[in-house]
Amino acid sequence: MKEILKFNDVSYFYQTKKDEIFALDKISFSVLEEDFVSIVGPSGCGKTTILSLIAGLLKPSSGKVILDGSEKIDTKKIGYMFQRDMLFDWRSVWKNITLGIELQKPDDKERKLQLADELLKKYSLYNFKNKKPRELSGGMRQRVALIRTLVMEPKLLLLDEPFSALDFQTRLTLCDDVYDILKSEKKTAILVTHDISEAISMSNKIIVLSSRPAKVKDEIKLNLSGETPLKKRDDSSFRGYFDLIWRELTNEEENK
């Protein structure tokens, strides 16, 4: 598979009024086409900082971030899903999904509008296209947010704890939905999460970070049976992966 993203010895620090904060220390990893990679680590270790570097919102203090073969980050190749769905309640579902098309005015506008229509039908949201977001459940709102991102056809999706505001049952269902959509559309994704089980069930690779300044403590390749994240939780190896990551994160907390 083609390499979509490469972090090459990336360090990042920033200045506050009182001192300099060293956030990332020589982070290196790669993401291949159609990978689903999760990043886990202690609170405040710099997981979201990594997403911001990938998205071009921040620049590394040293090292290189290479997206689709270029150090110059093309933001149109990035799709970003946040903790909140960021839908506008005064716009219909259709108007929310096509917002990016409206703002960017791409040359292939008509094709993207057709894609939006097809995705709504494919993922059972077409009958809600004229509804307002407040009329939808939390899980449906996040599916709308994901389709809004997919319509712009990004090379890489960044998922910043997109399920954290949902109740446990909805999270499990939405994990299956998002996983199915991304696999069906053959998309590459990076998920930042505090939920170890969520990371294991959705990913083919997990990057474990140390406490700040973050280093890559471990890179775990997963091989679980099951067609969905929920079914993968039944795999006999699931507990072993969980215990391994739990020990590494617990040791981090103890060594602070």
What this model shows, in words?
There is one protein chain. Strand 6 (156-160), helix 6 and strand 7 form a beta-alpha-beta unit. The strands form 2 sheets. This protein has a 6-stranded mixed β-sheet, with helices on both faces. Strands 2-1-4 form a 3-stranded antiparallel β-sheet. It has one domain (3-255): Rossmann fold. It has 256 residues and is α/β, with parallel strands linked by helices. The mean pLDDT is 91. The chain has 9 helices and 9 strands. It is globular.
Instruction: Supply the CATH architecture.
Output: 3-Layer(aba) Sandwich
Task: Please tell me how large the radius of gyration is.
Answer: 19 Å
Query: Helix tally?
Result: 9
List the domain count as a whole number.
1
Terminal Cα separation, in Å?
A: 39 Å
H/E element order = EEEHEEHHHHEHEHEEHH
Question: In percent terms, what proportion of residues is strand?
Answer: 15-25%
Structural class: alpha/beta
CATH topology: Rossmann fold
- Supply the CATH class: Alpha Beta
The CATH superfamily bears the name: P-loop containing nucleotide triphosphate hydrolases
Bin the helical content.
25-40%
Global outline: globular
User: Biggest sheet, strands in spatial order?
Assistant: 5-6-7-3-8-9
The major sheet is characterized as: 6 strands, mixed
Number of strands: 9
Q: Regions with pLDDT < 50 over 5+ consecutive residues?
A: none
Mean pLDDT: 91
